[in-house]
């Protein structure tokens, strides 16, 4: 194994399940020490940490509600105190709520939608701002988006799409800010996969799958491989990029 990330410290938000856990494993396989965050699934987080440690790297889990932006600086401080530094930030944690409800639906749970915006967008920005102050030179930031942020395709997904589309502009903007330090900033637009988030309406899933070039759900490990590439030295000249790993949804 190449161990391209030996000696690096990575933080994967939402790393207790789905794509986050797959990414944590992939980074560990390349030799990185890995911190993960979780909200309420402490047992699952502990299982992932044990699995990562079994790969011969240091690992730890940190409880963090990303919707509370005031906790971002404390999270980064805790990771740096535990591991001695930070090289890689993977912004994976996200939620999806109220799928299928149109913007004019009188029964929409606005509070839930606001929490989704806080988790998926402003919470990510808060963590990036805190991490950018301590990331070592030549570090990596990779945020996880969705093809829905570029092409919605079906009604009732406007708010979720907005949270992901906003990160595209932010990613491109801060790639300019951090380039003088050799820090690259990129985004991976993930596709349909079983991640533990709220399952989409079956009819919505049917419509989305039928629109793919590769008409199947992805394995989280497939997208984790793309994330790990962007986190590696091999991607040192890639920044401000949006990489689609969604089976051709945006093609």
From TrEMBL:
Q: Which residues form the signal peptide?
A: none
Q: Name one GO molecular function term.
A: oxidoreductase activity
| Pfam families named in the record | adh_short_C2
Q: Where are the transmembrane segments?
A: none
Sorted alphabetically, the keyword list is: Oxidoreductase
Q: Which domain of life is it from?
A: Bacteria
UniProt lists the family membership as follows:
Belongs to the short-chain dehydrogenases/reductases (SDR) family.
Q: Which PANTHER family did the record assign? A: OXIDOREDUCTASE, SHORT-CHAIN DEHYDROGENASE/REDUCTASE FAMILY (AFU_ORTHOLOGUE AFUA_5G02870), SHORT-CHAIN DEHYDROGENASE_REDUCTASE FAMILY PROTEIN
Designated name of the protein: Oxidoreductase
């Amino acid at each position: 194994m190449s161990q391209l990330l030996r000696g690096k410290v990575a933080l994967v938000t939402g790393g207790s399940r789905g794509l986050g856990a797959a990414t944590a494993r992939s980074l560990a396989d390349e030799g990185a020490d890995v911190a993960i965050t979780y909200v309420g699934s402490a047992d699952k987080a502990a299982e992932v940490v044990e699995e990562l440690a079994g790969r011969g790297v240091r690992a730890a889990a940190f409880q963090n509600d990303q919707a509370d932006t005031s906790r971002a600086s404390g999270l980064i401080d805790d990771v740096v105190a535990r591991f001695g530094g930070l090289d890689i930030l993977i912004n994976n944690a996200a939620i999806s709520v109220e799928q299928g409800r149109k913007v004019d639906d009188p029964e929409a749970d606005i509070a839930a939608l606001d929490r989704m915006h806080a988790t998926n967008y402003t919470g990510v920005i808060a963590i990036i701002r805190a991490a950018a102050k301590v990331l070592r030179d030549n570090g990596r930031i990779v945020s996880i988006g969705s093809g829905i942020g570029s092409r919605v395709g079906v009604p009732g997904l406007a708010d979720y799409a907005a949270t992901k589309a906003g990160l595209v502009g932010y990613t491109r903007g801060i790639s300019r800010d951090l380039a003088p330090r050799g820090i690259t900033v990129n985004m991976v637009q993930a596709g349909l996969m079983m991640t533990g988030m709220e399952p989409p309406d079956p009819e919505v899933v049917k419509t989305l799958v039928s629109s793919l070039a590769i008409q199947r759900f992805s394995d989280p490990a497939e997208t984790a491989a793309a994330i790990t590439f962007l986190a590696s030295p091999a991607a040192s000249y890639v920044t401000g990029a949006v990489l689609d790993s969604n089976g051709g949804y945006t093609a």
